[in-house]
Task: structure prediction
Amino acid sequence: MTSLQHVKLGTYYVVNLPRPDDFAFWRERARSLVQCDVPPDRVAWVESGGSGDLFAGGDTRLPVPPADARPIRASKRFLSLAKNAALHSDPERFTLLYRLVWRLQRNPRMMEDRADADVRRIEELDKNVRRDSHKMHAFVRFRQVKEEDGSEHYVAWFEPDHHIVRANAGFFKRRFANMRWSILTPRGTLHWDGATMREGPPAQKSDAPQGDPAEDLWRTYYASIFNPARLKVGAMLSEMPKKYWKNLPEASLIPELIAGAQSREATMVDAGSRELEDRPETLEAIDRAIHACRQCPIGELDNQAVMGEGPQAAALMIVGEQPGDQEDKAGRPFVGPAGQLLDRHLEKAGIERRGAYVTNTVKHFKFAQRGKRRLHQSPTAKEIDTCRWWIESERALVKPKIVLALGASAARGMLGKTVSISKVRGEPIALEDGSELWVTAHPSYLLRLDGEAAEKQAKLFDADLAAVKERLGELS
Amino acid sequence: MSDQTILQKLEILADAAKYDASCASSGTAKKNSLGGKGIGSTEGMGICHAYAPDGRCISLLKVLLTNHCIFDCHYCINRKSSNVRRARFTPQEIADLTLSFYKRNYIEGLFLSSGIIKSSNHTMELLVEAARILREEHDFRGYIHLKTIPEADPELIHQAGLYADRLSINVELPTDAGLTRLAPDKDARQIEGAMGGTKMAITQAKDEKKRFRHAPRFAPAGQSTQMIVGADAATDADIVGKASRLYDNFRLRRVYYSAFSPIPDASAVLPLKRPPLIREHRLYQSDWLMRFYGYQPGEIMQATEKDGNLPLDIDPKLAWALKFRDSFPVDVNRASKEQLLRVPGLGTTAVRRILTARRHRTLRLDDVAKLTVSLAKVRPFIVTCDWRPTLLTDRADLRRLLAPRQEQLELFAA
Result:
């Protein structure tokens, strides 16, 4: 080999690296050494401040390759890995890189052999460095400092594992181009003023500002966006290991969020969905269950539950709003004034009440006590929705062909949304189970009207009942 | 309401947004703030700036403009009839908050959604206004994801796409019947119509970009959607079928699955136990199999059990392999890429490594061990020059051997 004449046999060489992340410097030296055919075990790569004494006997004057030396081959894959691996804090990294580039001259496709130990090691270093850079992009937290001239300066403290600070200056420059910022780390600092980038010596945590008013907002956001029903601490820790916590303003909340999660979820469930088992299988079971039902505040009042009545095989189900004063006392639906009015109109339309299943969408009487009188109060949408469980259970057992809903509350109990009676009356609405819903006014509404309005509404009511009667005939 | 501080509003409106699964900020056009007036950059890969104890990535300021809503969807905490604290941000407050967080490197950008106030158009106008302030007044070049309201005027949705990186419209539930029952104010046809419109606008903008360098960008990160799992009776087979139709019809970037989680003040129509979180995980795994492993939706459905759901104790790829044992074992030294991708325990990276490594040597079991994560999982399904699983693939108890230990599963599903 031509280069042998340039190498002093039996000696080894020491390369002192000026900076721990200087890949270009290593590359230059490595090229010469390979061209001079210096084997890997004859070169020591020493970082500044490293254990140089060990290699005191080494020659720091490197051999000069001959003019006709072969060019050095290194695959693209090697270069892209090596650039990152050079930033790793492993003191052996440059030795590994040199060994690889040396071996690459003999086997140019060696990098493809993922089962080779050196190849696996450089991939590991590359991966660690990429991860560290990624975490720097993610976990740098700027704090705002007001300068004397009133301008804003954003300063962050970060502790990287590897020599990645300089390599990531570009990322922060591109992202915060028109902002004045500094990133302080124990491995060096970066300062950007909106036009130029300046590098500085290593810093200490105490050089960085201690707090920022926006951190309260951020902590509030962090605590609020967390869903206690989905606690997965392991998943969090694998992506945000504890070593980063000390410099993340939000991390101080984590222990209490985890501790509180289970009780918070339990509260959510208790306050929210009811632990309902299977649907009741008989009307009797529903009757028993509604008497015990305290799912909404109406059940807590001094009243009793009123079950629907009528044949279970009825083709028509008539649904009112809720029991009234007299219904509550009698324990039967539609026996008060509104019930009597309903009976008269049903008779007029030719619908036999005894052939229909008559019930209410809300099972308990909601009232406000005024002296001795109990004044009717409309159920809220939430109370109607809570009670839907029961009316749906009744419907599943009776399986009517037609459901006649009297009034807006009953319509909501069937549809789950509030509709306008005037818009939906007179036309069937298809329900999920194949039955038809007809909506009309509640008879108590008719009771409250006088004169012309009463007459007009009574006519509309009759017309709706007549339509239902006709449809029943078609369906049976 | 005006008495509420920004902090109180943020508490309410971030809490209200936490049920949305998506927080992705990847895959949009590259941009940075060099040469501009403001801040912000997107460089392909999104960044997770924090992780909540629920294991989910926090990449964006994910917040509602308001949680007032005229709709009454039963699974939703913000529905009209729900008894929750309400709050409302102005578009300016949203923009200020986004910039304040962005400057401190807390976030990649904004994910803005809203309850419907007054009308769909009015609400959409407010969402667009927040994005406009960020983009035009502050030259913000970070990531913006806007939830679009399917009932809003197409012109408003178009404007949203010009400001946003990504648009999304939630299909909410996998079946039309479920939607009718649980979201009575929503209409499946309208939702799909809006998705179709967005797809066309995205395609058109891409086409124009090829011809004219300065053509405006329209939602460069595409559109996505979210489905709630476990709130209705839809099986995994239904869900996978629906997802694949959505991918095909609307070229969605992602379909997100959100396991229905108990919400305070829940509606009585939802007398449901929460589905195990692992079910959501299995659906995501099947999503990956379709997107990166060449599985057809029909094949995922073949992996489901009699009830139409994917097994919870093993992943869908293993479930498929156990059902189609005659496709195995696969010879790692000869098999095609497609065959290797079907081997349980071999990911896309491992397959790529095997394909390059076998050009250099005939792979032995030891070599495969170095290239994969878990040899134990792979071994029953492969052949190497020194290994052949003679009896293993025929063993009746193979599933039990490969499934993770039971107590582990319960811990995970809890």
Remarks:
- The longest strand of chain B covers residues 223-229.
- DSSP finds 16 helices and ten strands in chain B.
